[in-house]
Input
Amino acid sequence: MLFRMRALVWFLVGALNVAILLLFWMASLTGGGEATAKSIPSITSYYVLMLSLGTISICHIDDDITREDIYLGKFYNYLARPYPYILAKFQQEVVWRLLSGGWALVMLAVLWGFGLPLTMSNRPEIWLLTAASLFLGMLVSFFFKVSLGLASIWLTNTKGLSDLAEIINIIMAGFIIPIHNLPGVLKTIAWWSPFASSIYFPVRILTVDVPLTELVSMLCLQVFWIVLLLFLARQTLKAGIFRYTGVGQ
Amino acid sequence: MKHSFSVIQHIVSAFLQASLEYRADFLQSVIGSLLWSFLSFASAFLLTSQTPKVFGLNRVDMLLLAATYGVVVGLHHFLCTHGFQRVPDIINKGGLDTYLLKPIDSLLVLSLMRVSWPSMIRFFGSIFLIGAILNAYQISVSIANIMSFIVLALFSFLLIYSTFTFTIIILIWHPYLSNLMELVNTAIGTARYPIEIRRYVPGPMSLVFMPTILMVNVPTMALTGRLSLNAGLLFCFVSATIFLLARLSWARALRSYSGASG
Output
């Protein structure tokens, strides 16, 4: 019960952010005639799914690594065990993602029950592809956050770095506006960034009838980021072990 | 009262010295603070790049709202937010007793125990930006408007302070819910959106959104001369009442504090 309440609060944090943007868009689109009125269900679906799927795929393990493992010195416990550190952290994080995801699914069911217009595919193969993309997105986010958390071995305070990553994520993952609506070069940068891979791609697969070539390119890009960020996380861990003093900070 | 001000003065200057001692940390915190300000402006730019007017507000109005948000919320971040954010940990580890034994108001000490000097740069930067926006877009503002803005911003400060106070009161009974502070921060982050959003908020949800949205919108409306005297006075009265209620609730909640960790 204790952890379920914490998971609910984390879910509400995301819900509040998305809800206010959704209200903003509904207000913008309501006065725009028939053409824009048609896009209200799609923008509603977009933000609701960004919120609900985001709670599953976007990891927050960096905070745990920084506070518990590095600053309080618990990192040593993991190093003394014959078990890979990154795998142990992944197992911890998966539990949180499932708890938060549970709340998200409850919210989706309630919204659906109240007749909120959600435009998404009803084809089972698309749902399977979305699930696969969501899992890949979670791995992208997880490996990125592991490297970010381990940076605290070198830095006294990672707040600036975490804030920077969070702000880039908010913009580049499409939380403010969908990536396809971002202006100019920002759209291209966001599309190729790992932030889009972690949440935007699964939502796009579920809500838009994407062509096969785009679908394949999105999945390939996710795999590319997983390989690159896993390598980065492992190298950071390897270098960090030599640097780590074992007494915390 | 004089004693309290003397303690506050010492706390504020002690944190300035501590901030300057760890310069890299200070610099990083400044960058973090400026980045969150940047997000407010980036959001305003990105949203208005898709639609010319929202709720009758154009890009200038949205930018002005983002700048006044930096002043009102920035002042609270400078003085109290970081202090409040430490409270869950203190309560959870049973350390509140230490603060209750001090010969000064416990809520005052807890809220001021982490004065964040880096946020001061955001605060002053936002004041500069308000001036720059008003100047660039030729928006005329009278002295009376500026004075009203300052007074109402201070009452907004009390409202934000009360919100955090009510949150730490919940933590006395549920110390494991430390992430409630994140929820409050997120809720206060919604203050940068226009007040007209209320028309699209379903009834019961207004209770969640409206208090935070009013925190920045009311002083901004006063600055641009769009606020009536009655509305301003009502806002001051409601803020002061909520502030007093928060302090009374805190005093009442302390009776339930057991001193055992969570």
Notes: Residues 133 and 202 of chain A are 5 Å apart (CA to CA). Chain A touches chain B at residues 2, 5-6, 9-10, 12-13, 16-17, 19-20, 23-24, 26-30, 32, 155-157, 159-164, 167, 170-171, 176-177, 181-183 (CB under 8 Å).
